[in-house]
Amino acid sequence: KVFTATRRDFLFRMSYRGKRSYRGGRKSGGSHSGSGGNWGRQQFTSDLAKYLNSLDNKPYSAYKSLQGREPWKLAGGELVFEKVQSDPYAPASLASFRIPQSVVNYPEQSFSTVDRRVATEDYLCRYIVNELQNRETRVSKSKEPQSTESTQSQSSVSILKPSQCIIPRNSVLIDKKQLEVRFNIKLPASNGRRIYGSSAASIIETIVEPALKKLYHETLPDTTKEELCLHVQTYLDQLQLRSLMKQEGLIGFVANGSILPRASGNSDFKLTGPNVVAFQSPPSREVSFDLEHSGTISGMGIRKGIHLIVGGGFHGKSTLMSALQKGVYNHIRGDGREFVLADDSSVPIQAEDGRSVESVDISAFINNLPGNVDTKRFSTTLASGSTSQATNIIEAVEVGSKVLLIDEDRTATNFMCRDRFMSELISADKEPIFPFITKAQALYKQHGVSSILVIGGLGEYFAIADSVIMMDNYYCKDVTDKAKEIIARDKGSKLEIQSDFGSITERRIHIDSSLHAFATEKVKANGTSSIRVGYNNIDISSVPFEEEAQVRLLSFLLKKMAADGGTFTLKQIVDYYVQQTQEDHAFAFCTPYKTGSLAFVRTYELAAAINRYRVLQIK
Question: pTM to 2 decimals?
Answer without folding.
Answer: 0.91
